Each structure stands twice: as C-alpha cells, then as structure tokens.
Amino acid sequence: MEGIIPLWKPKGMTSHDCVFKLRKILKMKRIGHTGTLDPDVTGVLPICLGRATKVAEYITDAGKAYEGEVTLGFSTTTEDRSGEMVETKIITEDFTRKQILAVLDELTGTITQTPPMYSAVKVNGKRLYEYARKGIEVERPSRNVNIYSIELLDDREIFTGETISFRFRVSCGKGTYIRTLAVMIGEKLGLPAHMSDLSRIQSASFTLSDCLTLAEVEEKVENGTIEEALFPLETGLSDLPKYEINDTLAMKVKNGAVLETPQEFLTIAGPILVSDENGRALAIYMNHPEKHGLIKPAKVLRNE
C-alpha cells in the first residue's frame, strides 16, 4: 500500500500516537507523519504510507493554515493552556477592533520568533522540551518565519474584560510556532498571553474536507475500501514547481542522472518535482551545489 491519508488528529494524542495506532490498523510499518502537532491541537495531519514516506519532508515544509484562540491576561510555561501559569495581569483597559487589527497587521510578513522551551527544536543535540522538563533554561536560536495572513475571527468592536480572548485564522510558512505568535500578539498589546485553542485546518494542499478520522480509517480497512481513500504521493508535492520530461530522459532520471537546468527553473532555489508525461512523480531535484546550470537528484522516487 502506498499513498497519503490526510488524518484529522484528535485532541489528546501526539502525532506519534497516531502513527502507532495506524500501524496497527493498517498492519504495516512504513508509515510517517508530516509535522508534529501538540497533543492539545486538533487538525490536518497528512500520513504517508509506503513509498510516499519519501515525500513526507516536502509536505512538512509546505505552507500551513490554522484557526486558534489567543487569551490575554496571563502567560504559561508552554505558551498554551496546558502549561503552568507564569505571569498574570488583570486587564483594566478596553481594546478597540482597530487596535487588534493593527497588531495582527504588524505581525504579518517575515517576523522573527524564538522557539518556546517546550518544543522539539534541538540545541546541543537535545530537544528543548528535554531541558524544560528538567527546569533548565538554555539559549534558543531565533529564526525568521513567514506569516502570509492573519484574519480576526471576531466581530466585536470593543474587547473588554479582566481577561480577553479572541479567535484568529493564520496562514504561514514552515517553522512557525502559533503558540509563540499568540504570545507576540499579547506583547504588542502590553499583556501576558497564551494560545488557548488551536486547530490546523490545512497542511500543504490537504484540508479538513480531505481528512479521515482514525475510526473512519479503521472502518475502510474493515470493508476493503481503504486504498480508494488514499491520495497519490503526487498530491503531497503539488506545491513544488513541476518539470515534465519525456520517456527517454525519464530513464536517466530513474538512474539518478544530473540534468541541465531548464531555462524556466534557473531562478528557482528550492526543490523541483520531475515527473513523466503521465504526471507520475519520478524524483525531486535541486540546484547542483558545485556546477552552475545543472540540477541533481535530492531524492529518486521511482526507479522501475
């Protein structure tokens, strides 16, 4: 079996828990997920089966969209509602819709984030959450991330209360921490804050409408229709620029040949999907690191 199952991850399970359960349901070992979702977070989690595990990293690196809620008035150790309270501040002033929208606009574009201590980022060979669980604070590397859009999902004109919560939708690039974005929204408003709810509504080209629950996967396995529900691995690569080649060149690609860079791809720095005339993905190519004007395979997907 090979392909992609867009899974709707339930609350309370880690991404690894989902993979473990699917291995039992599908009775196969070669399964991988495409980007960790915290246990408290629900949402779209594309699961790669068989040969499709080769493209998992490209789905992980593709854009994501989330719907969440930020709560102003207190912060937590984990930057979400599962953590212990760190700082509190009773809100004594009202905020206008215009003020909230101005902050969201300010955080749109390329911004710099520092990963939370409770995250899987590695520092000196260890995950940050391993340090955090032992109460050890370490210096965390900041990084630039891309926020394509933030939409306020609340029609109030005035935001008031001792704590204030409002929902938002964000579209972003890889490596973005929405928990940290919620904290940054609070900082811009002069308040401690945390992310009080989150759901991933899109990962690469996969959305909620594509997803199956674990129960639905199990049901389709039982009635023999699971393979009909799989998306081909090509779907997970639809965000990549595509170079279609003829059968003669396809044989060389399957053997890992270095190719001349086509004119239309000369300015592209990232991965290129090379496919045959039938649209089958054959390989992922990158610019040759030493030879200008050539591309070399980063990953051969089919060699038969």
UniProtKB/TrEMBL annotation:
Q: What is its EC number?
A: 5.4.99.25
Specify the Pseudouridine synthase II N-terminal domain's residue ranges. Answer: 23-178
Q: Name one GO molecular function term.
A: tRNA pseudouridine(55) synthase activity
Its annotated function is as follows: Responsible for synthesis of pseudouridine from uracil-55 in the psi GC loop of transfer RNAs.
What's this protein's name? tRNA pseudouridine synthase B
Instruction: Kindly identify the residues recorded as the active site.
Output: 38 (nucleophile)
Q: What species is given as this protein's source?
A: Bacillus mesophilum
| InterPro entries in the record | PsdUridine_synth_cat_dom_sf, PsdUridine_synth_N, tRNA_psdUridine_synth_TruB, TruB_C
Per its record, the protein catalyses:
uridine(55) in tRNA = pseudouridine(55) in tRNA
Single biological process term from Gene Ontology: tRNA pseudouridine synthesis
The segment(s) forming the tRNA pseudouridylate synthase B C-terminal domain are 179-237
| Alphabetized UniProt keyword annotations | Isomerase, tRNA processing
**What family is it from?**
Belongs to the pseudouridine synthase TruB family. Type 1 subfamily.
- NCBIfam families recorded for this chain? TruB (TIGR00431)
